[in-house]
Design goal:
- By secondary structure, the protein is α/β, with parallel strands linked by helices.
- The protein has a domain of 137 residues: P-loop containing nucleotide triphosphate hydrolases (Rossmann fold), CATH 3.40.50.300.
- The protein is 32% helix and 22% strand.
- It contains 9 helices and 10 strands.
- Strands 6-7-8-3-9-10 form a 6-stranded mixed beta sheet, sandwiched between helices.
- It binds adenosine-5'-triphosphate (ATP) and magnesium ion.
- Magnesium ion binds next to helix 1.
- The site of adenosine-5'-triphosphate has 12 residues, from helix 1.
């Protein structure tokens, strides 16, 4: 469970990017955060994994105040939190397999990491994670030789290898075409069904509505909506975005995908 209590984030230039943000995310939820560019979506995600320090309030992960953790304790807590980015953040010149094994870095000292010392169980875990996303056959391919969708699956496999309780995703499908977007979102759903909580920043409202169990709207650093996907009406969009959304800002073919398969789609 993640609890934010009256959180303020003020950047060093004095800009207040989050203002009195309070929210609770329960285990197993799939939460999307929506809002205009600059609203504070990435800031919120980065505060939760302590990439940014906060200036007021508390962030509790399973009851532990992460804003007070340092050194080893912080590294251990971060094992529970996977990160997915729009730009995939892979080591491009390394193999897919090495990228996925890197999900275990938080469990090892620097020496082990430099010399690639991982246990047999960890290596199997990495291969199983690749298999879950239908890209086991790419294990020895260089990461930069894969398509965008495949690279995001490698990032997902790396996250799974980390064995996190929570995955934070910052616009995970923003660089993908509409079809690949849907299959990567299905991958997120499968991860969520494994019991991993998902918190994702999304630009497409329809996509957020289709895939998440809860939507949080942020505007100028404040939460202005927190509810179920079906409660995101035009009025709510006006509250979040300052205006209603035209149909060309929505993903046209989204209703065509009825069932979310338990097996990876592959490409
Ligand atoms: N390092 C920083 N220093 C100062 N201001 C920052 C910094 N990072 C972000 N900001 C400001 O904080 C606000 C929130 O930024 P943030 O990146 O969280 O927005 P966002 O909702 O993720 O936007 P986008 O949809 O464009 O990714 C913006 O006004 C941004 O300019
Ligand atoms: Mg952002």
């Amino acid at each position: 469970m993640i609890e934010l209590k009256h959180v303020d984030k003020v950047y060093s230039n004095g800009y207040k990017a989050l203002s009195d943000v309070s929210l609770t995310i329960n285990d197993g939820e799939f939460v999307s955060i929506i809002g205009l560019s600059g609203a504070g979506k990435s800031t919120l995600i980065r505060c939760i994994n302590r990439m940014h320090d906060i200036q007021a309030g508390e962030i509790l992960v399973d009851g532990v105040d992460i804003s007070k953790l340092k050194g080893k304790a912080l590294r251990e807590e971060r094992r529970n939190i996977g990160m997915i980015f729009q730009s995939f953040n892979l080591v491009k010149r390394s193999s897919v397999y090495k990228n996925v094994l890197a999900g275990r870095v938080g469990y090892h000292n620097t020496f082990d990491t430099i010399f690639g010392i991982y246990s047999k169980e960890e290596k199997m875990l990495a291969l199983r994670s690749l298999d879950k996303f239908g890209i086991l056959d790419k294990a020895y391919v260089r990461a930069d030789q894969l398509s965008g969708g495949q690279q995001q699956r490698v990032a997902l496999a790396r996250s799974l290898t980390q064995e996190p309780k929570l995955i934070l995703a910052d616009e995970p499908v923003a660089s993908l075409d509409p079809v690949t977007t849907l299959s990567v979102m299905n991958d997120f759903t499968r991860i969520n069904r494994m019991g991993i909580t998902i918190l994702a920043n999304m630009h497409h409202v329809d996509l957020a509505k289709k895939y998440s169990s809860r939507i949080i709207g942020i505007r100028a650093g404040k939460i202005v909506f927190d509810g179920k996907p079906e409660e995101v009406t035009d009025e709510v969009c006006i509250k979040i975005y300052g205006r209603s959304l035209s149909s060309n800002e929505k993903l046209g073919n989204i209703d065509e995908v009825q069932e979310i398969p338990d097996e990876p789609a592959g490409e």
